# Entry
Amino acid sequence: MIHDNALNKNKIDWNALKVEAYEKTKDADHIQDALFIFPYLFEKIDDHHGWLTYNNKNYRWNKSRPKYTNETIKNAVKDNDKIYAALIDKNTGYIRIPGNNDFGAKKMDSIAENIVNEIDQINSNKIKGWIIDLRLNTGGNMYPMMAGISDLNGDQEKVGGFVTSDKKSEGEWILKNGTIYIDANQVLKRKKLKNSVKKQLPVAILISGYTASSGEMTAISFIGRKNTKVFGEESGGYTTTNQGFKIDENSGINLAVGYVIDRTGKVYVENIKPDVEITGGDNFKDLNKDKKIAVSAKWIKEMAKRQ
# Structure
């Protein structure tokens, strides 16, 4: 399974790895005694996005990386798990989309509908641009997030996609009338907004070191769009695509099997670098005191004057 599907399968000396794994687990009498090998295996195949699940416990490799020091973001992730929209300076729409736990695609419709409902609460023809806040988006299911904010993105034949390690297409992300497709296959259709959003309005995307996995993919779906800019800190670095494999009733494995690309074809091997880097200054209790919101709202005003 790992041998045939791992993202870096062509770079691994599999015979040597098997010998190492057998040597390390030779004294294991039960499956539970050998589970410690999986973080090691994920490290050897350079997969920090994958994991083994056994009896509802995950075994993964925690890749060593510089410590993320933004405590405001870290604490806010715990306290802001709901989709939230508001007006900034009367003419700028703001929507914050946290991560979700819909890995099994059971709640896609409700997540997308919640996003639409929040947009509906503040949307009007007075809005000159939008701020999409993904700083607290730790991942989950990307499809309802992309579909929910698709009106802010605009109908596009392609907003991104999946590719293999040798850059072959594994599916393009297509948006049409609030519906998201992978190639020609419909994934999710959600209800329409009460009022339409003006096309090509300026859109600011806010990211942080906690923006990860599907949060990063949602951000990537806007990169390359006209009148769009990314603000904040470098994202978490989980831009590989995962595929799940069932082992038995008690266990399964998720493997990184590819990368994501934006609409221009750029491949994201590591993470997202913001167009405008802003370190710190986050304030989720008073958005008017949030530095990243202030800078992006100012940019939106400047862009709106040019239209």
